[in-house]
Every structure is written in structure tokens, then in C-alpha cells.
Amino acid sequence: MQKAEYIPQPAKTTARLLSGNLFHNLEFHVNDPSQTGTSPQNWKLTLAYDGTDYKGWQIQPGEATIQAELQAALGRVLGELPLPQGSGRTDAGVHALGQVASFELAAAIPPENLQHAVNRTLPGAIRVVDARVVPAAFHARHSAIAKTYEYRIFRERICPPTLARFAHACPWPMDLEVLKKAARMFEGEHDFLSFAATDPDLDTRNLQSASQDPPAEPFFPKRQGAIRTIYSSHWSSRATAEGEFLIYQVRGNGFLHHMVRNLVGTMLDVGRGHMHLDSIPEILAAHSRAAAGPTAPARGLFLHSVEYGEPN
After folding, report:
1. What confidence tens digit (pLDDT) does each residue in 61-78 have?
2. Is 91 a catalytic residue?
3. Which of the following is catalytic: 91, 130, 213, 278?
């Protein structure tokens, strides 16, 4: 994939976007803060994406990632290459409805113009759904107080190709009431070490440049680092024109690597009768990944939304 080339800007330049009626003769100025005395603006973008063809959020050498695509798009539009900091690192194949990224820009451009311009150059699988300037102290990850994930299960015998990228097909018998009881058992503060990944690809996922933040969640968390608070955890059934879905939503103050997918895989085993409901407290107490169920496929998982303490 061709990466955007950084072209240093003079003290003040004018950029014109000419493609399409929406941007015809639209002009904005890129200023050098060191020469004008103005400070860079801190930006918050909310993104939705189909993660099927991407190796997750984080930039990885030689791989297509969401962070790399967003950085390259900003470079093509503005000639700046900030490293967008995400609220969390979605894995390969995981989708987002409300991922949040923050970064600084010197460019003086209205938020709606930045949103439209970046969307015109991003791949169709990635879209900026909101763009705004925020206070300098805002950080997409550090300022977050809660996240919600959603996992989608398709219940029919044949999964339509239009849904196959966005749901885990599970047509076998499933006890929804047992699933609901299992989900409630994860609410509150627990040590989720048994539901944390133990075999990440450290050669790629731990590659860090000097400008990048340290990992948001340790891949081999210590006992004290695996404690998380789950505010709500529930299953529901949803009828659509394509067929029935089971939807799992979980909201918490933080999540370990693969934690939601491991929770889902374990609950599906409980719902199918392969594992007893009473085994969930034992799994939590074991502090061992081997005690829990399988990891559910990435394609059914969505980062639904991220919450912040102050209006942004």
C-alpha cells in the first residue's frame, strides 16, 4: 500500500480541493504555528469502519491498518502526518461504529470541511462520522471513561453473503435465557485474566515508534492489571428481514486483549449446553485462559461507542 509522503509546508500556503461540486473552490490555510504564534489545534474524530480487510487499528510494517489509512489521508489532504491516537486497538477483522481518534493539526480548516475532505480520500471501508476541535488536554484513550462493544450472532441456517463479514453464523440450538444469565454474571468488578489473550503476535503488535504511546492494554497482563469493571452485560434477540440475530452488548471501564471475544465464546458454549452456567465463577477464579471457552471470530465484533467525562 502506498503511504502518504510528508511534504514540509512553508509558513503559509493555500490548498484547493477541486474534485466534486462539494469542494469546488473550497480554500483553507495551513499555518506554521512557530511563525504565526498560534498553537496547533487538538482534534477528535469519530470513525466507523469495516475491519475485514485490515490488520487492526495500529500501524504495522507492510500491513493495511486503520491508523495508517487515516494518517495517510490527513497527509494527502493537509500535508501533515500526525499519528492519530485511538481510544483502543481493535484487532484484525474487528469493526467499529464509534472509534475515536485524537491528534494535533496546524491547519486552519473548519471541522465539516476536514470531515468531507478526509472522507473523499479514505478507502470506502472507513468513514469519519464526526470531526471537531477539542481542548488541548483531550486524548482519545486517556480521557475515555467507558467503552461499549457489540457482538452479533446470526441464527439462520444460511448466512447471506452481505452479512457474512459482519456476524458470526451460529445456527445451532441456543438457550437465550441461559445466555442472559451468563452475561449478568460478568457485571461488576472482576479479575478477567482468564479471558485475556495469551498468544498475541508480539513481533508485530508490540512494535512501537518513539512517537507512539505505550500499549493501551498489556497483552500478558499481571493479576493486578486484569481487573476491570463491567457496568452492563446483556444479550437480546433482534428480528430483521434477513433473519434472527442475537446481540451481545457489554459496557465497561476497559477491556483486555480479546476479552470480549473470549467472553462471547465462553457464553456460547454455556448457551449450547457444552458448559454449565455454574462454571463461570470457577473460570473467573482460575486466572487461566485455559479455563475459559474458545475465542469467538473477529467478524462479529464492533466497537460500538466510547464515552468521555466532559462534553467534547
Report:
1. 999 999 999 999 999 999
2. yes
3. 91
